[in-house]
Amino acid sequence: MSAAYTSLRGLMGRDSGEGKGVKTGTVDHSDEKIKCSVGITAYNEAANIGQLLQAMLDQRLYGVEMSEIIVVASGCEDRTVDIVQEYMAKDLRIRLIVQECREGKTSAVNLFLQHAKEDICVLESGDTLPGEDSIEKMVRMFEDPQVGMTGAQKVPVNATQQIIGYLSHLRLKLEHQLCLEIPRTGELIAFRKVFDHIPPDVAMDEAFVEALIIKRGMQVRYAPEAVVFNMGPETLSDFVRQRRRNFAGHLYLKDKYGYKVSSLENSRVLRITLEEVWSALRLIYMLAALAGIEALSRLLGAYDYYLKGKKHVVWDMAWTTKKVERPKESASITSSSRERGGSL
To answer: Fewer CB atoms inside 10 A, N or C side of the chain?
Structure first.
């Protein structure tokens, strides 16, 4: 392994623009739209790659342009490559890079970086689906020159009737709360191409990109309105397998490269978890209170009807219900919707 891989600082020194060939990381504002290269990493994704590519082609874009969509198919043994080739015939922006052997996601990401032509790169896993305007909402953030990376909100599509499916929803709900405080990106990210590669020993590519961006003095921002749909584990063994490898990868990133992802801040994670516990307890309390009040109301209603013969044709008015004010959040949503409609 070369000396450039021995530390994050060493890698930054090589890719931070020292000497010739400086990468400024700024967006070219001479064009009206922000251009980006989209990369998709895939391993045996025949079940999803078609609808993922279609979702990319159907993106609602206004201030953003996808110059190219590069699919890196790594050691695929199903119809992934065939399906991508079918879509290549439909849209010339789609390109395919085939790795004969599976070498890990980092290797696939490096191939994408090697071939991407734009300064803004979008990277998505082949087993996910973007929201209809997720690319727009993520890439538009780069209008701010201080932004170096953005990440979408992960939304699971698992059924919640089963325990593991419910746990997938709960875990990503907690992760969303964490990201609102300190972004922790994954599955669908966008970043400035201010580096040429990721060290091959790194398993958590998104977290390493975070580290590189922060070392460059730029900001990592969470884009909760940009969603990416993914299927969480459905079995206990898969749940543990996924969480185990992620935790090990984050520990390695912390020990070797000195970058600590937000999910390793145990005190913050514990606080967010306790807030969720309190919310659940409060819900139970409120349900009990609601049941008690409803039972009392029905008892009084039965007393009025059966014993007093009172049908309440003329209502006994509930005066506190007479003044209606539009919630501020609802008003702001309506206003922003009108603004977007007027700008189209």
So the answer is: C
Conformational region of residue 69, where left means phi above 0, alpha means psi within -120 to 50, and beta covers everything else: beta
- CB 231 within 8 Å of CB 48: no
Chain-centroid distance of CA 39 in Å reads: 15
Rounded Cα–Cα distance for residues 158 and 231 (Å): 6
Beta strand segments in the chain, E: 34-42, 64-74, 94-99, 120-125, 128-130, 147-156, 188-192, 219-230
CB neighbour burial string for 273-287, b if at least 16 within 10 angstroms, e if fewer? eeeeeeeeeeeeeee
State yes or no: pLDDT of 82 exceeds 80: yes
Domains by residue range for the chain, with CATH: 3-264 (3.90.550.10), 270-343 (no CATH)
Of 64-68, 186-190, 245-249, the poorest mean pLDDT is in 245-249
Residue 150 reports pLDDT greater than 90: yes
3-state secondary structure of 166: helix
pLDDT of residue 329: 62
Rounded Cα–Cα distance for residues 160 and 119 (Å)? 40
Alpha-carbon distances, residue 247 vs 91, 128, 204, 212, 240 (angstroms): 39, 21, 9, 19, 10
First CA to last CA distance, the chain? 52
Residue-wise pLDDT for 101-147, tens only, equals: 888 888 999 999 999 999 999 999 999 999 999 999 999 999 999 99
At 111 the pLDDT is 93
| Backbone region of residue 19 per phi and psi (left: phi > 0; alpha: psi in -120 to 50; beta: other values) | left
CA-based radius of gyration for the chain: 25
Helix (H, G, I), strand (E, B) or coil at 117: coil
Amino acid at the residue 193:
K
